[in-house]
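Bench log, entry 3. Co-assembly request; chain sequences pasted below exactly as received.
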Amino acid sequence: MALDADATLGDAGEFGLIAELVEIFEGDDHVLVGPGDDAAVLRIKHGHVVVSTDLMVEGRHFRRDWASAADVGHRAAAQNLSDINAMGGTARHLTIGLAAPADLPVAWALDFARGFAEECASLGATVVGGDVTRADEIVIAVTVLGQCFQSPVLRSGARPGDVLALTGRQGWAAGGLAVLGRGFRSPRVLVEAYRRPEPPYAAGKQAAEAGATALIDVSDGLLAEAGHLAEASGVAIDVRTGAFEVPEPLQAVGAALGADPLQFILGGGDDHALLATFPDLASVPSGWHVVGEVAEGEGVTVDGGAYEGPTGWTHF
Amino acid sequence: MALDADATLGDAGEFGLIAELVEIFEGDDHVLVGPGDDAAVLRIKHGHVVVSTDLMVEGRHFRRDWASAADVGHRAAAQNLSDINAMGGTARHLTIGLAAPADLPVAWALDFARGFAEECASLGATVVGGDVTRADEIVIAVTVLGQCFQSPVLRSGARPGDVLALTGRQGWAAGGLAVLGRGFRSPRVLVEAYRRPEPPYAAGKQAAEAGATALIDVSDGLLAEAGHLAEASGVAIDVRTGAFEVPEPLQAVGAALGADPLQFILGGGDDHALLATFPDLASVPSGWHVVGEVAEGEGVTVDGGAYEGPTGWTHF
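Structure output for the full assembly:
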């Protein structure tokens, strides 16, 4: 995509900007995977170092009246740990940058840090550095380093004939966000799913060992991520809605808000479920659910046709 | 330092907050150096991975009317690359997070990225990942990974009897910042030193190989960094002003602004000079200048007495 010289970030969109940035940064022999996948992979003897970075901005990625500081900490850690999971790696070490107004209570920052450390500890990962500075709004910048002993599973390996499979809760966090946005605090299980996602941390390595051909975590929305897989792999992906059992709390929210609860599942991110392709049904591991298939072509369809609802989240 | 439960970040100050955070984060057997030094060092077979992270906020760490986007990119890279230098390591890979308003011109972001990549390329380091998102103000979050094949040189190794030595320009960037703050654009050499610092990238490894006992880069101000060394090592440091030759442009700025030019040298950061201690005069390598000495005791003195001027920069 060519951009005008005076285009703004709003004009370019997140992916337009990234596409431009990737052109500027050159890799080298030590970069096995550079910008464009869930994480970068660096050549290190006896296993690779895997590194990924994410930003969270108050009011956009979290609200202090919707989640406690510890919740925000848990979520910030989870979304980064999930990026290593999505490579088939094991998260080990993290850094945190915290930019915040001078009138932010120290207690908030400490509770945030405690929640963050707690989520990391559940995986045996630790925070090894950081930076704090003053800013008008809270911006949290996390970088996570992991190790990967087998080949990392990229977005680009899906082949026609593969099956598409999902593991982990999907749509719950989006349902929780929807009720919070209407001023409600229940169903509590969905609100908690938004506040403290529970990514399937063991499933990335499991998928890699089972021979997954492509792997991604669902942070921008299920159909959006399927689109990333399809584009990177040069294939078409069809998602079958009959594969999803809509859990009762999502049905209740759909009924209360007058929305199709399937929208939360197809368009929702934030649960950090894992989406993978496997060469055949027999190779899909325990705990994974087949939700679609891979064919020649391009783009994402739902039940064989175009999908008109929201497919995910955009940053600009 | 004990903080009240309702204390703000402004109350705690940067170092107070960090001290609290460090208490929360536990290391593990793989963390050779965790929070509190210039960078974290992680145990990796055949050399260690060194990682450090930094934030820059518009209006606080840079101004778009004082420096071009490429300048800001150069500076953001330099200050991070310098942190690896300050461990005696070699910078290899970086990630960038960019939070910015939607009306930021794409050209600014791209020029920033080009400047950043250019500074990295001068060392053979490369950008391997990143994140972009929307925010009210520009926040740049950089993480740098490096390798270290010998033992890293920490802040805590200075011993009584050691000599204190400096390499790289010192005070130039502070002089440039001072003239920009008064609305001037010259002396140009100082303004350029602020816009594009030239850290002595080869000197960190040089100092490590020469047997430096402690090492730090000067980003918060020379006396402030000497204070960090003294505190971490449990020693007293005396800085001798007679050791500094005040360069002509700094003399000119001092005369124009009615300030003692030595203030720029003693209080200035941003040049990312390196400050180290060595066991004796004979071990101080070529290119380094002896600027003081280490004794039993605590704190930093200047020419044997207390210093009343500004000693550095605080973030809250």
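Chain B has two domains: 23-148, 163-302. Chain B has a mean pLDDT of 87.
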